[in-house]
Inverse folding.
């Protein structure tokens, strides 16, 4: 098929389209759905009994703020990357990664004085640890929603887009986990909170390459 | 007034109308886009044969993703981002194909080394198959497969890049395969 023939064919196929909303608007819409889900799940699971006391601790609030910043930066980047021409700004990739680094640093530096493993903490390596299931439940719906919305757009860097979508979902899940998980031991937080977010990001990169990839139909040039 | 931004405003206006379903605006846009994308790809791709493939892939992507264009933004960064990614896809696909071809060539050489006495010339079947190809494809496949030249030697002789030699040979193989296999499917 020659270029002229292809142009004529595309013109014949032309239909009016509904223009995609701006990436900021779509990121906000996603956040609204995701926070709704988080509120529902945390309400269903029940808040930790010492939540009022924890809300008075600077370290707890700082970790929450870092997660919120990570969530905002990642969601913004995922939706920005789904629009051709906007993906090249350096901050699109750098900001969420900086946010992730800042949150991990906050956990590792441990301003709350967490201990490596408290006697009352449940065995954190038991298979089916409740925290892992809570995290999966919290991540699943927002991640699904993000992928659905991103596929409506045109992500060109599918791996990065998927990574940031899951990073945002993971950060949201950790905000919810902060409310429901009473295990503050450092080992638990590193494995089931930080580890979960890193695993989500890795899954997002792979899933992005698989589910966000959209190729145009093959051309028949020369046929 | 900057002619580039004037041009961009024009393209943006055409795309806005195309999003609303105006075929005349869309045709004008695609014709302009074809020329711009071709120039963009030519500057980045040495292999002449691949330029039109990338242009067509880009046009198809523009068509499929036209709802993602926001007329408040410049048109060309949007279009070139799509073109750049289609170009990267093309280069990656070509690299994979070249790797497969090198492996295929090695297997061919192994099989040939194991074979009983070398034939003195191409069989009638091979001669007929080669006759189906363009002169360039025929010459490259003859040197590669019948005379045992390396890709580098052919590239030096013909003045083509090694990639272009591999791609030309690959297209020749495909053409032969298509022409040889088709009668069996038609039966």
């Amino acid at each position: 098929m020659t270029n002229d023939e292809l142009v004529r064919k595309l013109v014949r196929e032309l239909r009016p389209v509904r223009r995609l909303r701006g990436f900021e608007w779509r990121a906000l819409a996603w956040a609204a759905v995701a926070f709704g889900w988080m509120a529902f799940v945390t309400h269903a699971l029940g808040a930790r009994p010492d939540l009022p006391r924890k809300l008075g601790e600077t370290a707890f609030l700082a970790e929450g703020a870092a997660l919120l910043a990570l969530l905002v930066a990642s969601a913004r980047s995922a939706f920005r990357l789904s629009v051709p021409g906007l993906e090249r700004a350096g901050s699109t990739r750098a900001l969420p990664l900086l946010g992730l680094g800042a949150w991990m640093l906050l956990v590792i530096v441990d301003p709350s004085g967490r201990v490596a493993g408290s006697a009352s903490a449940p065995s954190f390596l038991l298979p089916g640890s409740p925290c892992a299931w809570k995290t999966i439940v919290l991540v699943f719906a927002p991640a699904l929603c993000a992928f659905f919305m991103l596929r409506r757009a045109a992500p060109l860097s599918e791996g990065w887009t998927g990574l940031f979508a899951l990073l945002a979902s993971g950060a949201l899940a950790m905000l919810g986990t902060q409310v429901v998980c009473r295990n503050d031991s450092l080992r638990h937080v590193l494995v089931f909170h930080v580890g979960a977010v890193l695993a989500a990001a890795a899954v997002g990169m792979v899933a992005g390459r698989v589910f966000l990839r959209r190729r145009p139909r093959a051309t028949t040039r020369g046929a | 007034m900057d002619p580039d931004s004037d041009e961009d405003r024009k393209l943006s206006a055409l795309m806005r109308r195309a999003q609303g379903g105006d075929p005349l605006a869309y045709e004008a846009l695609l014709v302009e886009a074809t020329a711009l994308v071709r120039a963009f790809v030519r500057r980045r791709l040495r292999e002449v044969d691949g330029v039109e493939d990338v242009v067509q892939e880009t046009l198809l992507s523009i068509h499929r993703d036209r709802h993602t264009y926001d007329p408040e933004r410049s048109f060309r960064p949007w279009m070139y981002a799509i073109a750049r990614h289609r170009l990267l896809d093309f280069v990656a696909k070509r690299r994979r194909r070249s790797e497969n071809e090198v492996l295929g060539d090695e297997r061919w050489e192994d099989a040939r080394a194991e074979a009983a006495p070398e034939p003195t010339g191409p069989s009638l079947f091979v001669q007929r198959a080669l006759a189906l190809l363009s002169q360039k494809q025929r010459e490259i496949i003859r040197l590669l497969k019948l005379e045992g030249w390396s890709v580098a030697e052919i590239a030096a002789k013909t003045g083509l890049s090694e990639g272009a030699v591999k791609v030309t040979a690959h297209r020749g193989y495909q053409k032969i395969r298509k022409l040889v296999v088709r009668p069996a499917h038609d039966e």
